[in-house]
Design brief:
Order of helices and strands: EHEHEHHEHHEEEHEHHEEEHEH
Radius of gyration: 17 Å
Strand content: 15-25%
Distance between the termini: 13 Å
Helix content: 40-55%
Number of helices: 11
Largest sheet: 8 strands, parallel
């Protein structure tokens, strides 16, 4: 493996453990002890943590704030506040959590409109030295003729101003190929989301620790390395055990491939 991406944890995984400053500090210490080099901030569910204190705590633990997540509505209404936060955090990457339902309801035209609007927001962020990415779920894999919704987003947006944050679980959930999508957005993706999928005995699809599910991790990791993705962010939306234990299991599995 020539290029070795760095490993970060998405704090959404531990969202119930970071609602106060002391809890946030203790949680960041645990992530560093596990071995993560960075974090992705996703503070939409508890936005009252002081921005500068978050930076101070992460710096103290040696954690890089490699990227952040914000809802699209905040990019529309509070762009200057987002820029200010990013600058305090020393973070040059941010991402749209998901395309709002109103665009999806418009069909292919809605996806094209979203691609244009997101590009315009990315252009404004670029002027401040910040890169905007789009984080996919599985609903974007609905087909409109020869293109899926996700293809429309990336085909109709300017790659200078809208990057990709491919989520392996949601690509698989939508019937796509995570490896193929990583390869498809080569050179356009600063961060990839690693997330596994397991099938429970009743046939339910469920989030799982990396290596505990059924995704082809050798192929995914090789593609991530080959396309020079700087950061791998590990996320697990729901855990069936302590979330820190889940993040540790994922980290330990990825170490087998020389990551972390």
């Amino acid at each position: 493996m020539n290029h070795i991406p760095k490993l970060a944890a998405q704090v959404y995984t531990i969202r119930d453990f970071i609602k106060t400053v002391p809890d946030f500090a203790a949680s960041m210490r645990k992530l560093r002890q596990i071995g993560y080099a960075g974090v992705q901030l996703d503070l939409e569910h508890h936005p009252d943590l002081p921005t500068a204190e978050i930076k101070h705590i992460c710096d103290g633990e040696g954690l890089t704030i490699c990227i952040s997540h914000f809802g699209y509505e905040l990019f529309e209404s509070e762009l200057e506040k987002i820029i200010e936060r990013q600058q305090i955090w020393g973070c040059t990457q941010t991402a749209i959590v998901a395309m709002p339902e109103r665009f999806h309801e418009m069909g292919a035209a809605g996806y094209r409109r979203f691609a244009a609007e997101a590009t315009a927001i990315g252009d404004q962020l670029a002027a401040a030295g910040i890169t905007l990415s789009y984080h996919n779920h599985s609903f974007e894999f609905v087909r409109f003729g020869e293109e899926t919704g996700l293809e429309i987003i990336f085909n109709r947006s300017d790659p200078r101003f809208l990057k990709a944050e491919i989520d392996t679980y949601w690509v698989q959930h939508g019937g796509g190929d995570p490896t193929a999508w990583i390869q498809r957005v080569a050179g356009r993706m600063p961060v990839v989301h690693f997330k596994d999928m397991v099938i429970l005995s009743d046939g339910t699809q469920m989030f799982a620790e990396i290596g505990e599910g059924n995704l082809n991790w050798r192929s995914i990791i090789e593609a991530t390395s080959a396309t020079q993705v700087p950061w791998i962010v590990v996320e697990q939306d729901r855990c069936l055990r302590d979330p820190f234990e889940s993040l540790a299991l994922s980290h330990n599995y990825l170490r087998r491939y020389g990551l972390g």
